[in-house]
Amino acid sequence: MPSHSRSSAGRPNILLFTADDMDVATPGAFGGPHGLTPTIDSLAADGVAFERAHVPVAVCQPSRSALMTGRWPHRNGAMGFEPIADGVPVLTDALHSAGYLTGILGKVDHLQPVARFGWDLNVPMRQLGMGRAPAAYAAATREMVERAEEAGRPWFLMANAHDPHRPFHGSAHEAERFTAEERSTYPAPSRTVEPGAHEPPGFLPDLPDVRTEYAQYLASSRRCDDVLASVLGAIGEAACTTVVVFLSDNGMAFPFAKANCYLRSTLTPLVIRWPGVTAAGARERDVLVSTLDLYPTLCDMAGVDGNRAGLPDGDGSSLVPLLRGDAPPVARDEIVTVFHETAAKRRLEMRCVQDRAYGYIWNCWSEDGEEYQAENMEGLTWAALTAAGERDPELAARAEQYRFRRPEELYDLRADPECLTDLADDPAHRETLTAMRLRIARWMNDSGDPLAARYCRLADQRTHSGTSPPGGDR
Q1: What DSSP character marks residue 89?
Q2: Any idea where the Sulfatase N-terminal domain is (predicted)?
Q3: Are residues 204 and 165 part of one domain?
Q4: How far apart (Å, rounded) are the C-alpha atoms in residues 312 and 61?
Q5: CB 3.0 to 4.6 Å from 265: which of 58, 232, 320, 365, for a disulfide?
Q6: Are 442 and 455 in contact (CB under 8 A)?
Q7: CA 211/CA 253 separation, integer angstroms
Q8: d(C-alpha 359, C-alpha 336), whole Å
Q9: Is 33 within the bounds of a domain?
């Protein structure tokens, strides 16, 4: 049976494409620069774009481990950069049981242990031009499609671009990180961006070096779009029966985004196109989605029942009824996100609960007197912020706040989506603060979060004393 036909069970092929460190507001379809990401924008025009989709944790390996298990990091064993725990089902188990061939392109080592996934096709970064060569992705995709056609089986391909992860295109870091030979294996983006052409996101200071680094990041984002275009082009006739899911694993690798729990840390540009099912150009502006929902969604699409999928209880819910238009959106009033460990394996425990109005963050590490340090502080932007702080007291205070957080933060996401004004000490928001504490405490208890007892003790003390939390006068 050719791969562009459905199997006898009506199972679609599935392409799961991930960008690496792409901000939600980078694709044009999500409000980004016009013309920068034509392939992502076209995909969104053909499918459903989710405007309130979040990853559960804003750093690469834990985010991907959660995606491929449908479980919170503390429930799959990969809270940091550890392997997924023995006995935890992974998505490829379920898809293999349904007859799928499975493949992965790039970011192979970010799902551990690699052998646990049983990939039928496994192509690491170095065979893909450091994860940045569109032609290499196209060739590997064609190989996957041809193998499935010969076997008469549906296929699942997880194609992972390494852009726009640092080092950004044209940066000094790129020349330091990759050798001349490595740089020769991938092309420049099909479009570059002049420094200063676009204002940086509002959570970053508008400084010359920030604009320069933001332009480099946007150029790398264009090359991610180039890779997506090559993969979609290589699918060929199989496109008519292929579900395409696009998302980023976390926010951009800049301060106040990746490796945090702010709104722009976890908000992801999720698009799903399911030929013959999803309505072209549909937008879900209100429904709160977690990428934990993708595991049960893809199993549902593939006809894998919950028992064979090993679906966890309550971590995620299938979006298929929503995509089919058969049922109202998933009934979720809040999104919880977490953080455990940086790529440098530094433990910085955070928890966050957001609804459509407010976002509350608990910085456990701050209560222990730690100083924040993460990979998002590399490059030009953090250096520019700290240097400007020597002349500008407001920027100095913002840099200090980033390094030494208050244990609790509260933001009005409607009035302040960039999370610039912390309301945790505002008496006018005390009731909201208390309500959000109760929400995160309930979730921590219900999910078995290992810090639940500690948080509940502290939250109870704060709520009944009405005083600032420990470390609040920093």
Answers
A1: -
A2: 12-304
A3: yes
A4: 20
A5: 58
A6: no
A7: 14
A8: 10
A9: yes
pLDDT confidence band for 466 (50 / 70 / 90): low
Distance of CA 235 to the CA centre of its chain: 24
pLDDT at 471: 40
Closest CA to 159 of 96, 216, 226: 226
pLDDT tens figures, 393-428: 999 999 999 999 999 999 999 999 999 999 999 999
Looking at residue 197, its amino acid is A
Q: How far apart are CA 444 and CA 448, in angstroms?
A: 6
Residue 202 and residue 256: Cα distance in Å, rounded?
Answer: 10
148 within a domain of the structure (yes/no): yes
The overall average pLDDT reported for the chain is 93
Q: Are 207 and 392 in contact (CB under 8 A)?
A: no
- Determine, yes or no, domain membership for 288: yes
**Cα–Cα distances in angstroms (integers) from residue 426 to residues 333, 408, 461, 468, in the given order:** 24, 12, 18, 11
Q: Which two tokens stand for residue 395?
A: 């920027």
Q: Is 371 exposed, middle or buried (0-12, 13-18, 19+ CB in 10 A)?
A: exposed
Q: How many residues does the chain have?
A: 474
For residues 472 and 406, the answer to whether their CB atoms sit within 8 Å is yes
Q: Which residues contact 201 (CB under 8 A, 6 or more apart)?
A: 23, 25, 214, 252, 254, 257, 264, 418
For residue 325, give both structure tokens: 């238009």
Q: Rounded distance, CA 159 to CA 46, Å?
A: 19
Confidence at residue 241, expressed as pLDDT on a 0 to 100 scale:
95
Joined tokens for residue 306: 């919950």
Closest listed residue to residue 117, CA positions, set 93, 141, 99, 140:
93
Q: Is 186 helix (H, G, I), strand (E, B) or coil?
A: coil
For β-strands 358-363 and 408-412, DSSP reports them as: antiparallel
Does residue 234 contact residue 142 with C-beta atoms inside 8 Å? yes
Q: Which residues pair with 359 in a beta bridge?
A: 354, 411
237-261: pLDDT as tens digits:
999 999 999 999 999 999 999 999 9
Q: Would you call 465 helix, strand, or coil by DSSP?
A: helix
Domain that holds residue 31: 13-324
Closest CA relative to residue 245, chosen from 323, 146, 163: 323
Give CA–CA dist 450/427, Å, rounded.
31
> The pTM is what?
0.95
Q: What is the CA radius of gyration of the chain?
A: 22
Q: How far is it, in rounded angstroms, from Cα 360 to Cα 352?
A: 5
